[in-house]
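Hi, here's the filled form for the chain we discussed.

Project: internal
Contact: R.S.
Residues: 170
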Amino acid sequence: MLLFLALSTACSASKTPEEEQPSATDNPITSGSERPAVSDTPSVSASGSEQPVVSDTPSVGETERPFAEYKKITPKEAQSMMSDDVVILDVRTQEEFDSGHIIHAVLLPYDEIREKAESVIPDKNRTILVYCRSGRRSETAARELVKMGYSEVYDFGGVLDWPGELVADR
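And the returned structure, exactly as it came back:
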């Protein structure tokens, strides 16, 4: 019995105060990264205002913000932002684009963003309004553009919700 007490006392006495305190790496939420837990789900508030969406990784060469983000907006908000200085980016297929697209939209299918975005949109500070058919591909494309260093990316979802007219290239 005395041997057991002596061993347990020796083992607990050998721990330093630092070993007794939990470290940041013991926490599964912060271990490996000091980034706060933030939802990746785009959202628009009840008032319809834009909500920033945190990307999975910061943009290459980005130093002023800890995380790159795109903004989820409504089609009406996108419509009010449209001007000559804005790129309206359709990320659907050529066939979908030809059957009807927003006037002055530029086609860049979402699966070609990595390869062609820098030649289609060389200015990474230019405002880009991204849309597809229903919103899934526009979200993917917006995330990719942000990862590539584009700073003013707005996802307004799908053309199915577009309040304006479409033009067809036939």
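Let me know if anything looks off before we file it.
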